[in-house]
Amino acid sequence: MACDCFHDVESQLRIPRRGSRSTLFGRRFSVAIDKVNPAMAKNVDLQIAIIAILVAFCVFQSASAQAPAEDRLGGRPLEYWLEQLDSDHFSRRQAATHQLTRYGQDAVLPLVEIAKSGKLESTHRAMNVLQQLAMGQSPDDDGGAWAALTQLVDQGSGSASIGARSALEEIRRDRQSQALTRLAAEGIQVDYRDFVIDSRSLHAKVLLIDKAWKGNPEVLRWLRWVKDVENAVIEGDAVRHEVILQVVRMPALRSIVMREATLRDDVFGPLSTLSRIDQLEFRYIPLTVDDAEKIAKLPLRVSLSLMGTGLPVEGAKMLRTAVPGIKLAYKQGGFLGVICNQFSARCQVDNVKPGSAAAMAGIEAGDVVIQIGEAKIASFDDLQIQVGSHYAGDEIEITYDRFGEIIKTKARLGRLDNE
Asked: 142, 301, 356, 375: least CB-packed within 10 angstroms?
């Protein structure tokens, strides 16, 4: 690489070219001093020295520019930096911790061996590097450094196992924070809300993927890091295989509501991968007897609610036989809109949903429902059975007791569209 600085300085100093001799760094130079100003002659050696320094600087620049990138960055073989983790010099240990992250997954296996060596300092630093490498993996990558840390946890209770467990916990905390941020940015809601399942209202933390969501399913890979959410509600077009496949990866998931959709592909396969499903509800999703047979094979534990599914009666009967220990709510989809105390000896209304069929019929909190049509009502369960036998749009006659006054009214049932 040519260096132009030498020519520039030479022209400015106006150095003569013949005559006098001078020695610089053991070499002889001839300098012309014909008709040279005496003051300039005295500075010849200084001028030559300056030029020599500039030449040396230019040569150094050229060599540096041509050197490999890893040399300029202080690059060393992987083995060298692994050895430095146990160096007597703090600065070298620090440099090794930093440099090893540049080797990516190539450094994982050697770092695992160092972590298992039993040397406290090198084990700690190896864990630090493994943690950083794991954090750099994609959210659904179970291999590499993440797999190595998991294996170390499973291998005992030594310093390596304890360090790996601590690293994994910190990664999970950081990942959960990232996950909530990424999901919220894509319109996926994770927060506390009123959550209705099997016609009972709970206030709980819920994952909601509503019918308005049209985002990229790739973001759902972050759901595996949302660790403290037991309930999920999936609506509309989101009720499909690629979405459910990611939803079921939430580690604490126990209750699932799918509503207002048409099954277009296999949603039962992903559900079958769960170790248990405490509560499962299909709401206003058409189901067939074949679908019922797939539902019967799921790991259900507490309840199954089928509301407005149009499932033939033979499908419901088959489910009652196939899953005898499960509470099965088989409803045609009519919705009255009252909340009652399920532990009360009578069906007293605690709350009425605004705009619901019950509100339109004049029913108020404190009223006690005693009859639907000709059927006697003694509990909230009785009320649900009678209302559940009707479709949305059906008109029913309700008899209730308001502070000793017996009142009859008619209500046109609606749909449980939202909470």
From this structure: 142
Q: What is the three-class DSSP state of 303?
A: strand
Q: What's the pLDDT tens digit per position in 69-125?
A: 343 335 678 888 888 887 888 988 888 888 888 888 889 999 998 888 878 888 888
State the residue for tokens 């690489």: 1
Hunting for tokens 């600085």 — which residue is that? 5
Which two three-digit tokens encode residue 33?
A: 């001093």
Residue where the block lists tokens 């040519």: 2
**Sign of CA pseudo-dihedral 178, 165, 150, 105:** positive
Token couple for 169: 């916990």
Q: How far apart are CA 99 and CA 71, in angstroms?
A: 13
The number of beta carbons lying within 10 Å of the beta carbon of residue 300 is 23
The DSSP bridge pattern shows strands 300-307 and 327-331 to be parallel
Q: 317: which 2 tokens?
A: 């009967």
Phi, psi (degrees; rounded to nearest 5) at 352 = -125, 130
Give me 55's structure tokens.
């030449």
- In this prediction the pTM is 0.69
**What domains appear along the chain, each with residue ranges and CATH number?**
5-66 (no CATH), 72-183 (1.25.10.10), 187-331 (3.80.10.10), 334-419 (2.30.42.10)
Digit-coded pLDDT (tens) for 236-290: 999 999 999 999 999 999 999 999 999 989 999 999 999 999 999 999 999 999 9
